[in-house]
């Protein structure tokens, strides 16, 4: 079992974020006799998944919905599958957008480098 501070360090997030996830019912850590939060390996794996969903722009409302469906049980499997398929579609769209932006930036960077190179050549001709 891990403390909130240990989990925050393992995951590279703040304890505030962990408390927020708990408040939003995205995670329900165990409590020890003193009432302190305790996280097991299953909690950490779930939080790693949540972090990846956030990193790929899944809104907190949808993460909450997924967590809620999971807690409801196996009869929500189709709904969870649908939610994840929808998110995967969104990620594929993000990838296409990022590739297009990357290509555009490559062209722009090449144009700037070419411009700078020609300026340097002009400077060298003038000084010789």
UniProtKB/TrEMBL annotation:
Which GO terms of the molecular function aspect are on file? DNA binding; DNA-binding transcription factor activity
Pfam families, per the entry:
MerR_1
Q: Which InterPro entries match?
A: DNA-bd_dom_put_sf, MerR-type_HTH_dom, MerR_fam
Identify the domain of life. Bacteria
Q: Which CDD domains match?
A: HTH_YyaN (cd01109)
Q: What is this protein called?
A: HTH-type transcriptional regulator AdhR
State the organism named in the record.
Aneurinibacillus soli
Gene name per UniProt: adhR_3
